[in-house]
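Below is how a single chain appears once it has passed through the pipeline. First comes the sequence as given, then the structure the pipeline wrote out for it. We keep one example in the README because the format questions we get most often are answered faster by looking than by reading.
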Amino acid sequence: MGDRLAGKVAVVTGGASGLGEATVRRFVEEGAQVVVADLQVERGQALVASVGESTSFIRCDVTEEGDVEAAVRRAVDTWGRLDVMFNNAGIIGAVGPIAETDSAAWHTTIDVLLHSVFYGCKHAAKVMQDQGSGSIINTSSAAGVMGGLGPHAYTAAKTAVVGLTKSVASELGVHGVRCNAIAPGTVPTPLTRAAAAGGQAIGAATKDVIGTGGGTPLDIANAALYLASDEAQFLNGHTLVVDGGRTINGGSRRFATQPAGLIGIPTEASS
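Resulting structure:
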């Protein structure tokens, strides 16, 4: 047990499983009180029962603005404030070639991955501006900073989250409210396992591509902990990529395997 979040109150959407569950547990370990906001009622209630009185569960459909607002209100009504809003809930969403992508599936994906983040930022801002402090954290993705790592709708939404994070940060910074994003690489969660089971490619394992070993939900939870804590008080509008180097693959590594020398210097023979 630590005290990096002692006295702080957080809301974690998608908090009942995966990255959200790991973050809830990590936040509580460091002294926070946490509202677990999720559609998964049984899992959410079981998590709260296992963690204890420092948590409270609320059923939350993040595509409904009223549900997100209610999660924020639960934090304020229960513990009197809101210090951390982690807009984390997500799905893989629409998959397939762009020419065959279903429009309804596209809109559902954008609702879950982008509109929900807007709702979380909006309602957290109302509380945090009055306090003069707070940390909003949005889950983007490695697919939001590099093309080809996710389905089209997912990539579009996660890229938009990066832009929204910067825009919100530029407005709220003067009120003492920070807004940052995390861009996770592929880590084992029920979400990514479901995608793999469905035959959808979710990217090569980091350990096979860049050699740093595979990531875990705890790696993402630790990143969220840092952004939530006062240690990150000078970080605003930033997207923290936590992918073991996946997004730099294809850069210098392939050249490092070639014989040392120069490439592209004109010579008489090549002119």
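Residues 9-256 form a domain with the Rossmann fold fold (CATH 3.40.50.720).

See the next section for the split statistics.
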